[in-house]
Amino acid sequence: MASNNSDSAHNSLAADLGGTDLSNLYRVIDKHNVYGLNLTVPEDAREVIKPWDEREDNTKYVDSNVDDQLILHIPFMENVRIKSILLKLGRGEVTPRHIRIYANRSTIVDFAEAETTKPHLNISLLEGETGVVEYPLRVASFASVHSLSLFFNDSVGGEGSRIYYVGFKGDMRSTKREVNSKLEVPAPNAADAALTDRVSHKASGQQTTAR
Whose C-alpha in 14, 104, 160, 170 is 20 to 30 A from the C-alpha of 21? Predict the structure, then answer.
């Protein structure tokens, strides 16, 4: 018969894989200050920041407006180290195929700047997924983060993008972040910044591995 310790370890692992443990950073996202660019309804940006148990809710989402590009700016209430990003995307024609991630760049206010600013990471997104997919990040580039800007583009249909859920896994780096903090993430290696990560499924179909 399995011991209680074995059961506890199994339950802990299941919780970790499910995003329900303390590594889920939902509780430290400054949801009221989340905003987006090129959204059909600008206020909907915060609707995709959901607790884990609402990740499959398809009634709340964001759509891009005039084309397939959109930016989500997500601040945190504390400095955090981010190990992975969790995404549930629209399917079919509205699936964005790329995301550019900028850390601690709250000055990105338009798409022209986003296009000319080197991201900390550029990821190719999986197509045809029905649930949440986890994309591991290069932890060294996201070791002390107080905000992220996510630039989605290049949808399958080329006309619009849809996002249902955005979440993060990692840990907290400080007890509180000063409101006027000037802390910046160390610049990524040139090789890292230029790299477009390609991802592949693990057998579970729920996590991808950057290469």
Answer: 104
Select from 26, 46, 60 the least CA-distant residue to 162.
Answer: 60
Alpha helices in the chain (DSSP H): 4-18, 111-116, 190-194
Distance from the Cα of residue 64 to its chain's centroid:
17
H or E segment and range at residue 124: strand 121-124
Q: Contact 49/29 with Cβ under 8 angstroms?
A: yes
Q: What is the distance between the alpha carbons of residues 208 and 75, in angstroms, rounded to a whole number?
A: 25
Q: What is the pLDDT of residue 107?
A: 73
How confident is the model at residue 34, as a pLDDT? 95
Q: Name the phi and psi angles at 31, rounded to 5.
A: -60, -35
Q: Which residue ranges of the chain lie beneath pLDDT 70?
A: 1-21, 109, 174-211
CA distance 39 to 36: 6
* Other residues' Cβ atoms within 10 Å of the Cβ of residue 70: 26
